[in-house]
Amino acid sequence: MKVKQTIKLIVWSWIVLLLLSVSPGFSASDRGSDTPEQVIGHLQSSLLQVMQEGEKLGYEGRYKFLEPVIDQSHDIDLIIKTILGATYWSQLDKAQQDLIIDTFRQLSIATYAGRFTQYEGEQFKIVEQRSLPREQTLVRSQLTKSDGGTVNFDYVLHQTDGGWRIVNILFDGVSDLAIKRGEYRAVLQRDGFPALIQLLKEKIALAQQNQ
């Protein structure tokens, strides 16, 4: 009898483990049904949390904490494709495309981990959400700094199979996508693909210095 109970317990344990590994309903990180405001709210609350634990976590800890947050809130593939543009993107082979996506993803996470390092009473507030052309949505928010100054963050999101994802961020009206587009394309045109990868790696290394 004890043998049967033991076997039954083992079987049920394997079933539970299987469900936990494949069913999105069991995953706390599954945020595919979130609204655009909720996606931004989760991102910003995570940034505040990592700032509060910034010194304790160090760069590596902040990177690991933010990695799944950025993956779930940013459409990294589309962002880098848009930055390079259809012409440059089509000139890259599959290996180069995979490399630039992976390197840009690392840089995106590293940038957050390198900038949001300590908490001094900052607060985020979502101001509004409104529809944009091409089935995109704008979420406007404001960061109030410890000295009372403010920074406006405008997030442009679009719907994917995995939920709403950020495709551009404007800092006080300045488009991050436009800045990167000008910089990255200039390097590609002048020095080629290896030079662009090297530039991104140098930026990652620079972010890592903010321990």
Task: List its salient traits.
7 helices; disordered N terminus; alpha+beta; Nuclear Transport Factor 2, Chain: A; 5-stranded antiparallel beta sheet; 211 residues; 5 strands
Shape category: globular
CATH homologous superfamily (4th level) name: Tgt2/MlaC
Percent of residues in helices comes to 55-70%
CATH topology heading: Nuclear Transport Factor 2, Chain: A
If strands are numbered along the chain, what order do they take across the biggest sheet?
1-2-3-4-5
Nearest-integer average pLDDT: 87
Task: Walk me through the structure.
Strands 1-2-3-4-5 form a five-stranded antiparallel sheet. The chain has one domain: Tgt2/MlaC (Nuclear Transport Factor 2, Chain: A, Roll), CATH 3.10.450. The protein has helices spanning 2-22, 36-52, 54-73, 76-91, 94-115, 176-191, 193-208; strands at residues 123-132, 136-144, 150-160, 163-171, 174-175. Helix 2 (36-52) runs antiparallel to helix 3, helix 4 (76-91) packs parallel to helix 6 (176-191) and helix 5 (94-115) packs parallel to helix 7. The model is unreliable at 1-29 (pLDDT under 50). A hairpin with a 5-residue loop joins strand 2 (136-144) and strand 3 (150-160). With 211 residues, it is an alpha+beta fold. The chain is 61% helix and 19% strand.
